């Protein structure tokens, strides 16, 4: 068969990702661990590199060629004060770089913001299984193993049916032989879920990075050029930080400035303040000036300012104003239950995949760069809680939202007893289809397969242009290749679900 002629364009969209080769490999990701996550580089007596996370929980070390395994890297996780169920995962040098660039930042993000998910892991492959089957992978059994095969049968996810201590292995065809990612039996399920999400998006490669052995099996398309120096980015949670960081509401009749960077509601029951590192913190209590808050919210510095502004202005401020007008306390105490299924409906409608483990309902955005963890509260942490059971549980225990995109990682945390309508409001802001204006040179190359970029018409303001993009893209998936099995659902217009202003 004649080899396809590669386009002259310097960058290509390559599908499927499991055949696309390593690309730039792990070099950029390792540099990111050092520069953005604070991992420290050491050398062992053999001069091999070892990276250690700031919390002293995880080590990334070079793995030599042993027992026929290809050279690669291994991550070991063992909390010094919590020795139960240490775990590890390993990957070789031929692994597609997108897999490691998704999994490693996801891991590095957890000890800082959600350490319990890393040192008390909830293992399992349910999330990855559901996601890959939706992407066209087929489940079968062979030689005592569950085997999930890619549509072209050139990649597989395998786990033992009988040995609970055996690792789960993700493997695919490389330019020579195979590539492999191995997860120990106690490795947290969210890492496998992230790896699966990465496999379902296309890769970005230069022509010389495309493996010659697989060219005839792959779809190769020129990467569309940037619409201009200033673009509209969607989904908004991947747009990265804006021109400024999150800020408290401006002083008004409702919000009184008490000191620089802090405002308190006129009733004295809510406080919003800028954190020293540049993020935002919210405290609420049913009693004025009570030092014991009923619930709290925290946003890290890189949270898109449009998301925090809208949540504070359109939801928290309106909710406080409504309580003052009506003499109620719905902002400060949980006055009604909302089922998790209702709360996360905007996420699932936007294509986020969901599964349940022993403690949380976990959701992952298409592409794997954003996730949500919402405790379902099914005591006593029953390990067999199904996704349906979790969705039918009341929303009482807060929520965590994590973004590990190369545009800027950020974290939002709502504690338990946060009123359900405010959790749902933040979810609505995350999934609002209105795009955000950003400089195109701030959108990394590897993120172009997970975002939409649109030009800002010169005669329109950014707000008006964003509204136009919302209507233009309402029915378009992120990937428009008809042969691509992983299609992202159309965004849902959530504007009708916003709180009604009472001010």
Describe the structure in your own words.
It is a single chain. This protein has 503 residues and is an alpha+beta fold. The chain is built from eleven helices and 26 strands. The strands form four sheets. Strands 2-3-4-5-6-11-10-9-8-7 form a ten-stranded antiparallel sheet, with helices on one face. The chain has a ten-stranded antiparallel sheet with strand order 15-16-17-18-19-24-23-22-21-20. Strands 12-1-13 form a three-stranded antiparallel sheet, with no helix packed on it. A hairpin with a 5-residue loop joins strand 2 and strand 3. The N and C termini lie far apart (70 Å).
Concise summary:
Helix content is 22%, strand content 27%.
Percent helix, as a range, is: 10-25%
Protein structure class: alpha+beta
- Gap from first CA to last CA: 70 Å
Low-confidence stretches: 466-503
Number of strands: 26
Question: What is the makeup of the main sheet?
Answer: 10 strands, antiparallel
- Using only C-alpha atoms, the radius of gyration works out to 23 Å
Shape: globular
Mean pLDDT: 85
Give the count of helical stretches: 11
Question: How much of the polypeptide forms β-strand, as a percent range?
Answer: 25-35%
Strand numbers in spatial order across the main sheet: 2-3-4-5-6-11-10-9-8-7
Organism: Kitasatospora phosalacinea
Protein name: DUF317 domain-containing protein
SSE arrangement:
Layout: E1 12-15, H1 27-37, E2 40-43, E3 49-52, E4 58-63, E5 72-79, E6 82-92, H2 97-113, H3 115-119, H4 126-134, E7 138-142, E8 145-149, E9 155-160, E10 168-173, E11 178-183, H5 189-199, E12 203-205, E13 219-222, E14 230-234, E15 255-259, E16 262-265, E17 270-274, E18 280-284, E19 295-299, H6 305-326, H7 340-343, H8 345-349, E20 353-356, E21 360-364, E22 370-375, H9 387-391, E23 399-403, E24 410-414, H10 420-431, E25 436-439, E26 452-455, H11 462-472
Antiparallel strand pairs: 1-12, 1-13, 2-3, 3-4, 4-5, 5-6, 6-11, 7-8, 8-9, 9-10, 10-11, 14-25, 14-26, 15-16, 16-17, 17-18, 18-19, 19-24, 20-21, 21-22, 22-23, 23-24
Helix pairs in contact: 1-2, 2-5, 4-5, 6-10
Protein name: DUF317 domain-containing protein
Region (Disordered): 462-503
């Amino acid at each position: 068969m004649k080899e396809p002629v590669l386009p002259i364009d310097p960058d290509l969209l390559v599908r499927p990702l499991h055949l696309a080769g390593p690309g730039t490999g792990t070099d950029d990701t390792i540099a990111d661990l050092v520069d953005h996550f604070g991992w420290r580089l050491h050398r062992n007596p053999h001069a091999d590199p070892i990276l250690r996370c700031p919390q002293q929980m995880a080590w990334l070390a070079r793995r030599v060629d042993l027992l026929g395994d290809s050279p690669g890297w291994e991550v070991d996780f063992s909390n010094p004060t919590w020795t139960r169920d240490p775990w590890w995962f390993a990957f070789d040098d031929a692994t597609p770089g997108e897999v490691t660039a998704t999994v490693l930042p996801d891991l590095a993000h957890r000890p800082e913001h959600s350490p319990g998910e890393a040192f008390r892991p909830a293992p399992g492959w349910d999330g990855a299984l559901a996601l890959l089957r939706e992407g066209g992978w087929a489940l079968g059994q062979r030689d005592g193993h569950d085997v999930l095969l890619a549509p072209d049968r050139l990649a597989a996810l395998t786990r033992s049916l009988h040995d609970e201590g055996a690792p789960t292995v993700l493997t695919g065809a490389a330019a020579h032989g195979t590539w492999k990612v191995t997860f120990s039996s106690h490795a947290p399920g969210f890492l496998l879920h992230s790896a699966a999400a990465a496999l379902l998006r296309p890769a970005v490669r230069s022509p010389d990075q495309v493996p010659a052995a697989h060219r005839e099996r792959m779809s190769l398309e020129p990467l569309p050029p940037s619409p201009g120096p200033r673009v509209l980015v969607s989904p908004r949670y991947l747009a990265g930080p804006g021109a400024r960081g999150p800020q408290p509401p401006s002083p008004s009749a409702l919000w009184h400035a008490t000191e620089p960077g802090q405002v308190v509601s006129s009733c004295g029951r809510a406080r919003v303040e800028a954190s020293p590192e540049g993020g935002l913190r919210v405290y609420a209590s049913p009693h004025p000036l009570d030092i014991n808050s009923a619930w709290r919210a925290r946003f890290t510095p890189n949270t898109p300012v449009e998301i925090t502004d809208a949540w504070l202005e359109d939801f928290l401020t309106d909710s406080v104003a409504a309580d003052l007008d009506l003499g109620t306390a719905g902002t400060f105490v949980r006055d009604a239950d909302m089922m998790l299924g209702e709360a996360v409906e905007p996420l699932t409608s936007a294509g986020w995949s969901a599964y349940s483990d022993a403690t949380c309902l976990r959701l992952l955005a298409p592409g794997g760069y954003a996730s949500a963890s919402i405790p379902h509260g099914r005591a006593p942490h029953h390990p067999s809680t199904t996704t349906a059971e979790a969705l039918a549980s009341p929303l009482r225990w807060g929520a965590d939202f994590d973004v590990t995109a190369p545009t800027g990682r950020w974290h939002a945390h709502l504690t338990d007893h946060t009123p359900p309508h405010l959790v749902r409001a933040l979810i609505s802001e995350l999934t609002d289809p209105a795009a955000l204006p950003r400089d195109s040179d701030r959108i990394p190359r590897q993120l172009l397969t997970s975002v939409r970029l649109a030009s800002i018409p010169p005669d329109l303001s950014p707000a008006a242009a964003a509204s136009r993009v919302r209507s233009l893209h309402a029915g378009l998936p992120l990937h428009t290749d008809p042969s691509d099995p992983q299609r992202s659902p159309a965004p849902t217009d959530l504007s009708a679900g916003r709180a009604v202003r009472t001010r």
